[in-house]
Structures are given as C-alpha cells and as structure tokens.
Write a structure and sequence with these properties.
Blueprint lengths: L9 E5 L4 H12 L3 E6 L2 H15 L3 E5 L5 H14 L5 E4 L16 H26 L9 E6 L2 H4 L6 H21 L3 E8 L11 H7 L15 H12 L10 E4 L3 H4 L11
Parallel strand pairs: 1-2, 1-4, 2-3, 4-5, 5-6, 6-7
Helix pairs in contact: 1-2, 1-8, 3-4, 4-6
Bound molecules: nicotinamide-adenine-dinucleotide.
C-alpha cells in the first residue's frame, strides 16, 4: 500500500497520454490525486485516461490541446478549473524531438519553429495560465508545485540536435525564472532525463539506440533509463521531502552529464 499523500489534490499533466506523463499520471492516481491529462493524440489520451480512472477510481479529465497554441491553452485552463477545484501539481512535460541529426547549419526554419513552439513556448503558455489560479490556492506550505521537463541535452549542448538542445536549455532557465516569480507561494523545478525508452523513441530500445551514437548509447550506470526512473523523482518533488527545493534542475541521466564518460570507461577492478 502506498501513502495517499495527494488525496484532495489535483494534478495537470501535459503530454499525459504517453511516456513520462502517463507514468506520473498513474503514480499520482495511486496516491489519491485527481487528474487533468492534456495531449494532442486523441485516441491514446482517451485510452490512458479511462484506464487510469478504472484502475484507481479517481477523476481523470482528458483534454485535447496543442500546448503551443495560446487559444487552445486558455480554453484548456478554463475547462480544467471548471472540472477540478484545484491544481496542486503541474507537470509541464509535453515535448517533441523532430529533426534529430539536424545541426546548426542544416536545421530548417520550420523545424526550428516547431521545436521551440512546442517545447519552450508551450511550457510558458501552460505555466502562465495554470499558475495564475494555482498561486491563489490555500494549501500550506505551498499553494502548488510545478515541474518543467527539460533534458540532459539542455545541460550538455548537443550540436547534433540544435533546436531540441536549445529548447531544453531554455526550459531549465525558464524553471529558475518562474521559481523566482512564484516564490514563496509555489515551488518550480525542472527535470532533465537522459536516455529513456518512451513514445519519443516509438517505445523501442532499437530506435533509441539507432538515434543516439549509432547504437552506442551508454550511461556510467551501464543501463538505459525507464519511465519509472523519472516517476520516482517526480514523486519526491510532489512530496513534503522536497519542500526546501525550488529552481533546481534534477538531472536523471544515469550520470552522463555529471560523470561524463561512457560506461565501459568505468569498468575497472577495484
Ligand atoms: N524519452 C527520453 O529519453 C527523454 C529524454 C529527455 C527529455 N525528454 C522529454 O520528456 C518529455 C516527455 O516525452 P516522453 O519521452 O515521455 O515522450 P512521449 O512521446 O511518450 O510523450 C510526449 C507526449 O507529448 C505529447 N505532445 C507532443 N506535442 C504536443 C503538443 N503540441 N501539445 C500537447 N501534447 C503534445 C505527445 O503526443 C506525447 O503523448 C518531452 O518533453 C521530452 O522532450 C524525453
């Protein structure tokens, strides 16, 4: 039995139909939260929402919305607060990685715009609309908590994925600025996952391997990450255990950006 520390609390998760968003939605539902799940993949969104509602008996509201479109985000936020009386936790997580292998010189303008609009502008639009109301909520010690999804490629500049890396570096900075803006009412942090098999890699380890380093994706901890590696960190942030942390970027990459060497280089006899 898990502790239901999110009972009476609402959570809004963008990119909630799949991957990290779906994993966090399940974990929050198990801990008593009611949910708004936001995505553009209508069928998957309906399926994920009804599965979670049936399994955990909580309220799950699926809302189709493109986070890069301000009119859709405004309508989504309005419906959210009609359906739930609070949003305690915002997981501002929807993101895309088009144009991998398109470096600074090769990237086309339309892919640049698409990546920036979804990954960066989208996080801003959603946080802006949701936090307006979140900061007036009466929870103690915080009215709410926000997490933006960045990437280890926001920490390590990845020249092979120019727009993605730039958008994720922006997300880390946005979380710090938002943390200053919303303190002391709301904590705001970012997460920076590394290599994890999710929808972004068509749920395939082979795809992940072929996209990165021509099949040589490695971590110092010698395994590729999964959704649960991210869910556990989000649960920590959602819990009281993280209550003195804001503006922080949680890197969840098996050590790549901190240790900075491939796994095999660490295989030594002690
Ligand atoms: N998987 C990884 O290894 C990894 C690593 C670092 C960062 N990330 C980031 O994690 C986040 C979640 O991705 P994931 O890996 O779970 O992949 P995913 O594809 O499984 O989930 C992303 C979800 O976002 C939705 N989405 C895409 N564009 C949208 C839009 N305009 N409006 C609303 N929803 C939209 C997709 O439909 C999808 O359901 C993304 O921001 C991604 O950049 C992933």
């Amino acid at each position: 039995m898990v502790e239901k520390f999110l009972e009476g609390k609402g959570a809004l998760i963008t990119g909630g139909a799949s991957g990290f968003g779906r994993g966090v939605a399940e974990a929050f539902a198990e801990r008593g939260a009611d949910l708004v799940l936001v995505d553009i993949k209508t069928d998957l969104l309906e399926e994920t929402s009804s599965n979670i509602e049936k399994k955990y008996g909580c309220k799950v509201v699926p809302i189709e919305c493109d986070v890069s479109k301000s009119d859709q985000v405004k309508a989504m936020a309005k419906r959210t607060f009609n359906e739930l009386d609070n949003i305690y936790f915002l997981f501002d997580n929807a993101g895309i990685a088009p144009g991998y292998r398109k470096d600074f010189m090769k990237l086309e303008e339309d892919l640049y715009d698409l990546t920036m609009n979804v990954n960066l502008k989208g996080q801003w639009l959603v946080a802006k609309e949701i936090c307006k109301k979140m900061r007036r909520q009466q929870f103690e010690p915080y009215a709410g908590k926000v997490v933006l999804t960045a990437s280890m490629f926001g920490v390590i500049a990845n020249e092979k994925s120019f727009a993605y890396s730039l958008s994720k570096a922006g997300a880390i900075t946005m979380a710090k600025m938002l943390a200053k803006t919303l303190a002391p009412k709301i904590t705001v942090n970012s997460i920076s996952p590394g290599y994890h098999v999710t929808g972004i890699y068509h749920n395939s380890l082979d795809t992940l391997m072929s996209v990165h380093n021509d099949g040589k994706a490695q971590t110092p901890l010698n395994r590729i990450g999964d959704v649960d590696d991210v869910v556990k960190v989000i649960l920590f942030i959602a819990s009281d255990a993280s209550n003195f942390i804001t503006g922080h970027n949680f890197v969840i990459d098996g050590g790549i950006s901190e240790v900075g060497v491939p796994a095999n280089a660490l295989k030594v006899d002690l």
